[in-house]
Structures are given as C-alpha cells and as structure tokens.
Amino acid sequence: MIAFTSPYIWYTTRATGFVALILFTLVVALGTFVANRIGGTYVGRFELNELHRSISMVAIVFLMVHILTTLVDSYVPTGWFSAVIPLTSKYEPVHVALGAVAFDLILAVWVSSLLKARIANRSWRFIHWFSWLALASALAHSFLTGTDSRSSWGLALGVVCAAVALASALWRYFARPTRAAGRTALSPLAVAPLDGDARDESARRDPSR
C-alpha cells in the first residue's frame, strides 16, 4: 500500500472536493430540467439531457481524484475501506462516513444509468432519486470535514449549492408537468412510439401495415 503526504496532495484533495460538489449540484439541477421537460426554442431537451450526462461524468472524475488523494495522504489516517464502507475511518468517522454514503449513492445512480436499457424504468427512476440524498450527504460531508468549508468563501459556496439544490427540489415537485409522469428523456437516436392518430395516418399511407 502506497502512503505518503505532501501539501500538494492536500491542496488537490480540497480543490477537487469543491469542484465535485459544484458539478454534482449542477447535475442535480440539470436533472430537474430534464425531468420537467424544459427546452425547445434555444436549447433542446436532448441537448439538456446530454449536458446533464456529460457533466455527471466529469463530476465523477473529480470525485475519484478527491477520494484517491485523500486515501494516499498518510497525514490523515482515513483507511482505504472508508471510501465505500461508512464508519470505518480512523479520522472523524461520522464526518467521513457522510462522504462514503454520498459516494455509494452516486455509484448506484451511475451504474443504473449505464444499465438503463436493461432494467425496468420504474427501478431506474427509483435509484435515480438517490442523487438527492447523495448531494445532501456531500454537502454535510463538505461542511463538517472540509478545511475551507467554514471560511467565508467556502461557507458561501456551500450555501449557494444548498440553495440551488433546495430550489431545484421545490421546482421539481411543484412544476413537474403531468405529461412527464412515468417517462424519461429519450436519446436523440431513439425512435419515439407513434400515437393513435399517427398510426392511422401511417396505415393509410402504407396499406401493407
């Protein structure tokens, strides 16, 4: 096991933690836009969906760097299992456990998205709700564990992320259109099913159907 310490590793851990928090806040907000089927005139729904997915992948990269630099830095004895198993850290076990919970939930959401075509839509949507719990755990982890989280700029950043998450949750609940219930965003390459009128018109044009 490689273990060493350096101020540059600590700076990287702090920086990537804040960047990951900002990106995951954007992911949740954009997910609300996708769920509420916003888009059309200037930015299409498909573009918003692809932006949501792309930022989530970048956020996971920053999160992995944040976790890796934390684990290899021997100045803080967190322990390698603490990244995925809560309450196993030797340093601030409860505070680090919140980060582990956030990571586990984010991992579950990410894996379910990769397997979206192979699992039921109801199951995918249920697992996707974990992203809200993950963001809440990440915010708590950042405030309780982060070196800069209680400074003026760090606290302001955390408050802004929390406010964006809260506003997104409220808007997601009150502004969600009825026609989006039980549906998910389609890929630009997906073929949408025809409704009754469209099928009748298609049959008239092609009598062989």
What is the topological layout?
Layout: H1 7-35, H2 45-72, H3 93-114, H4 121-128, H5 130-145, H6 152-174, H7 196-205
Can you describe this structure?
The protein has about 210 residues and is mainly α. The protein has one domain. It is built from seven helices and no strands. Helix 1 runs parallel beside helix 6. About 5% of the residues have low confidence.
Per the principal axes of the C-alpha atoms, what is the gross shape?
globular
Give the integer mean of the pLDDT values. Answer: 80
Helix content, binned percent: 55-70%
User: Using only CA atoms, what is the Rg?
Assistant: 21 Å
Strand proportion, as a percent range, falls in under 5%
Biggest beta sheet attributes = none
How would you classify the helix and strand content by structural class?
mainly alpha
**Count of helical segments?**
7
Low-confidence stretches: 179-183, 185-194
Distance between the termini: 65 Å
Oligomer: single chain
